[in-house]
Structures are given as structure tokens and as C-alpha cells.
Amino acid sequence: MRYATRLIITIRQLLNLFAIRVGFNGVYEESRPVYDDLHIDRAFYNKASWILTPSAYAEDKLFALKPTNGNGDLTVVRASAATKVNSSGFVEDSCYNLAGYSQQFDNAYWTKANVNVTPNDTTAPDGTVTADKLLETTTNGAHYALKSIVTSGYIRVSFYIKPIGGRTKFKIRSESPQAPTSASFLLTGSGSVTAGTGSVEALNNGWYLCEAHSSAVGTGALGYFLVQSLDDLGNESFIGDVTKGMYLWQAQVVNGITKRIDLPTTDRLDVPRIDHSTGEPAILVEPQRTNLLTYSNNFNDAIWQVVSATKTVNTAISPSGGIGACRFLTLANTTSYLYIAALAISTATVYTVSAYIKTNGTGLNDVRLYTTTGGTSINFTATNQWQKISYTFTSTGTTTNIGFRGVTGVETDVLVWGIQLEVGAYPTSYIPTTTAAVTRNADTFTRNNIYTNGLITASGGSWYVELENNLALTRDNNVAGLYLDQSLGANGFAIRNNAAGQQLTISKYVASVRSELYTTLTNTVKILINWNGATADVFVNGVKVINSSVFTVINMEVLGHTAAIDVPKYIKAMYLFPTPISDAEAIALTT
Q: Per the domain annotation, does 104 fall within a domain?
């Protein structure tokens, strides 16, 4: 039966649910009411022991909607930066807060001038004792905390500030080419912005949220941001007073004109990716890949050569939202290139080159991706929307020229951005580079004690997984993928790519021996696995595809994903039930 009563949870309700969580220190996906499209049946919500959706996360964590005591939260490890497509369609760092160690101003990450920092000295706006005290020294100079950073697009820089010792004037400044940001603040009463472009909000207990906004679009060059005390006359340089200064908490630097929810950070490397490439939010997990092309978005560098063409850098808004797109214009109806010459590669190896393209509005929209050791791609036609194109080839030598090529006999005038060359049979998310190749490590997550904590029981259970963008791909190598098991590959279930050119396969492991149960066939797939201590059933997209496969394991303790060499997955939802749900319920849930 199809349940008529729906539990529709909005973002506001989600915030209220998580507000009761002890020690929650994360953010919530801001794009829309995340459950309006998932339509969680009230009966399923009540019956499930564990629910995960692309909603609440923090550095190192994906937070379960249910339970709320932490027993369902996933530990996330990637140990590298990564990009995602956000809800506005822009490519951004998975950690959208570009400020590291955002609540640890004593950390060496921050450059301090003429201040002494005492960490965790007072109560922060969130009620935790995590705010740092910055007192001035008696040096005649500027008194600040600063960090160098690369930004692009519109910039918003914010700090929570509480004055100390009668100091009332402060300044936030960001120096980035084409996008300088500065605002001065008077922090008394309700607070005010006395110069520059920004905003201030008076909070409880003497705290103020101060923010500076840029008025121009940056180009992605190196700059810095800082917060500093000013003297009573508003001077930046003055003889400090050791009894004066500021309490400081939660630095945030974001690209874009929209305010973002505070994202606490440390090293910024293990932030989960809530990606919108498919048009809906999904938890993105990918294998390890390396972008072998240096200066992947700096076509002004001398490494990028042109033949019978011109390149004009920073000429338009790029997929990241900043001014960073490069115009590739051929000069005649002849062979024309924008390329890197003699890049060292391995022979007889499968590579994929990808890039973003967009029309420049002149109607000369055809372009190719080009190599000298693996051929040249088909013609791609740029449109008025940024699109990611790719070309997979097998190398026939140990060096190659690689880049963009005009179409012979037809002039080309397109915008290009974010080129990438990686070993593998398909493209993955963009990996920015500068002077050297950059590796994005695999996305992994785990949740231990699944059985011990009662999320599944001795009576068995049910595991529901909903995936988007389930493409027929060739994995980099053999690996378990998404799994629920006693330990990885021991006794349990896995959802993984099993063979070249196939979509995901559902398998069971018994005594470390894997048996295939069913290979999925659709790009959007809803999977439910039932087990009862004797047998297992599998339901896919409303159909019972496996009936009573022998499976006697009940005490599976680990749910996780290992993606080092498996294919990407876009996870829209996962549930666990402590006992097997009925066939009718399984069919309804997966339909």
C-alpha cells in the first residue's frame, strides 16, 4: 500500500530538531526544505531506527536525522580539499568557509600582530566556552589577527566580536585584487557600521556579529583578511593598552552575495560534500583522483600556449561565481589551439580530460578537447549555460600536448574554465591546481556499533538506500563501495560497481566470499535489503528482485563507504529499520 499520511519536514523544523542535540556544532543544507521532495512517510519515519539525508553536517561529520543522540552520526574522512556544486549551481570548495581554525585564534594558522591570545577564555555566542581573548600589547602599531587566502567572486568576511576594556572601534578588512573589502564598526548599544560596506548585529552578553562585504567581483588571486582594534579616534596604528582588546569567535569568509550559516572549521579537509550536480542535494562520494594539469584555471600562465588563437583571461563570470573565465578565440578558419605542450604521461593508460565551456555570444560555439597521444574529441557546442565536457582516451605515448582546439574550417569563440586531466575512464569533480598536480583523496565515511546500539537487532533488519546519477561506469579497481557488514568484506552487504560498463551491483558477503545478488539498471535507484537471520530479500524500484537468498548473519556492526577506487555515488537517503519491514512496505518505500 502507498501511505497517504506524509511527514514533511522543513528546514526550520530540521533546525528545531537539531537544536536539542547536545554538543551539535554543524551546519544545515540551506537550499530548500530538504524533505519536501523526499516525502518521508510518517509510518516509515516512526519505524526507522536511523535516517540519513543530505541535510546536516560539520567538519568530519554527517549528522543523522534519527537518532539524535549521536549514535547514528557518520565519521567522514577525506584528508584533502574537494569541490562540489552548490545549490546555486556554482562550483565551490566543500568547506565553503574559507577561514580555517575559525574558533582557534591561538593556532599558528593565524598571523597575529601586537596582540596576546588566550584561548577558550569566555563564553561564546553559542553557549560554549570557546571564545578567545585578544589583548593589545603596548607596541605602537596595528593590533590584529590575519590570514592570507585566495578568494574569488563577491566576498563576505565576518567575525563575532565582544569589546574588552572600553575598546569600542574595530575593523574587518580583506585585501584581494579587484575585490577589496573593508568595514569599520562602533560596537556600543545596537552597534553601527561607521565606514565601508558591511553589517552589524547586536547579540546577547555583549557580543556583536560584524560582517564586511565586497562591492566588486574578485579574480581568484592571493590576498588576506583580518580583524583589528582601532583606537578611540579610529586609527589603525596606535600604542596599545594591555587591558583592552576584544573577545573573538567564529571567523567566516565566503564567496557570494548570500549570507551562509556559520561553518566551524579546523583544517577544512574532511567536510562532507552536499552536491547539487543532479539538481537535488545528494551526499557525493568519489574515488581518489589527481588533476595532472597545472594552472588548471590560470590560462594567463606561460605554460598555456596558443597557436592561431588568442586567450583573454578573467573576461567573464566563471562556474565558481568569480571573474575567472578565459576567452579562447581562434584567428582564422585553420587549426588553432590553447594547450599545454609535452605533458609527461604514462603510455597505454586510460585518461579523461574535462573542462567547462560556455558561449561568448558570437555564435562561434564549437570547440574540441585535444591531445596528441589519444586523438581529439568530437565537436562540443557551447551554450549560454556553463557545461562540463569530457573526453576519455587511451594514451599511445609518454608525452602529450593537451588542451582546447578550434574546429577546422570554422572559427571558435568560447569561454573556458577549470580544465582537468585524470587517470580513469570517467571525469570526477573539479580539482583546482596552481604550480603542481593536486590529489583529491577518496571520500569515506563509517558508523560503528550499528548492532550494539540497536539500529538493527537479532530479529534482522532493513537497509534502504536511494541513489541518483547511477551511471554505467568502469571502476578504477575492485573495492567494496557502500557496505553494511561485520567488518569490511566479511559478512554483510555491499552496493558497488562490479564490472566495466555496469551500474551498481548489490552483493552479499558470507565468510568473506562475495556473491552477486542483483545489478541495477536505472540512473535513479531505490534499494531495500531485508534480512531475518535466515534469508535476505532485495527490492529495487518497487519490485522484489531477490527472494530468500540464504543469509544467516544478524550482528552487522559497521555501515560505511570506502571509495578509494570504486565509482562515484550520489546518496539521497539511507534508512535502517531494527526489524525487517513487510514486503508491501518495502515495495512502497522503493517505488
A: no
> Using an 8 Å Cβ cutoff, are 141 and 114 in contact?
yes
486-491: list long-range contacts, CB under 8 Å, 24+ apart: 486/553, 486/555, 486/556, 486/557, 486/558, 487/557, 487/558, 488/558, 488/560, 488/562, 489/514, 491/553, 491/556
Query: Can you give the residue range of the structural domain that contains 432?
Result: 290-439
- Are 570 and 282 in contact, with CB atoms under 8 Å apart? yes
DSSP lists the bridge partners of residue 507 as 494, 516
Whether 270 is covered by a domain: the verdict is no
Question: Which residues have C-beta within 8 Å of that of residue 513, sequence separation ≥ 6?
Answer: none
Q: Which of 572, 545, 540, 537 is nearest to 466 (CA)?
A: 572
Query: Which amino acid does the sequence have at 417?
Result: W
pLDDT score for 375 = 85
DSSP 8-class letter at 13: H
How many beta carbons lie within 10 A of that of residue 300, not counting itself? 14
Non-local (6+) Cβ contacts of 531 within 8 A are 460, 461, 462, 537, 551, 553, 554, 580
Contact partners, residue 385, CB within 8 Å, separation at least 6:
358
Contacts of 410 (CB under 8 A, 6+ apart): 333, 364, 366
389-398: per-residue pLDDT in tens? 999 999 999 9
Last residue of a domain, one of 413, 439, 465: 439
Whether residue 18 has pLDDT greater than 60 = no
The torsion angles phi and psi of 589, rounded to 5 degrees, stand at -70, -35
**Residue 253 is which amino acid?**
V
| Residue 270 backbone zone (phi > 0: left; psi -120 to 50: alpha; other: beta) | alpha
Q: Could you report the per-residue pLDDT of 292-313, keeping only the tens digit for each?
A: 999 999 999 999 999 999 999 9
Burial category of 242 from C-beta neighbours within 10 Å (exposed 0-12, middle 13-18, buried 19 and up): exposed
Q: Are 225 and 146 in contact (CB under 8 A)?
A: yes
Q: Return the bridge partners of 223, or none.
A: 149
d(CA 488, CA 512): 9
User: Amino acid identity of 378?
Assistant: I
The reply to whether 125 and 83 lie within a common domain is: no
Encode 262-322 in three state secondary structure. CCCCCCCCCCCCEECCCCCCEEEECCCEEECCCCCCCCCCCCCEEECEEEEEEEEECCCCC
| Cell numbers linked to 420 | 582537468
Q: Which domain-ending residue is among 231, 255, 279?
A: 255
Q: How far is CA 556 from CA 48, 51, 109, 466, in A?
A: 17, 17, 41, 20
Rounded CA gap, 435 and 296, in Å?
9
CA–CA gap between residue 485 and residue 447 (Å, rounded) = 11
Least reliable range by pLDDT among 59-63, 150-154, 435-439: 150-154
Q: How far apart are CA 451 and CA 49, in angstroms?
A: 11
283 falls within a domain: no
Does residue 324 sit in the same domain as residue 407? yes
Residue 33 confidence (pLDDT):
31
Q: With contact defined as beta carbons under 8 Å apart, do 413 and 326 qualify?
A: no
Helix (H) or strand (E) holding 510, with range, is: strand 505-510
The grid coordinates listed for 184 are 569599520
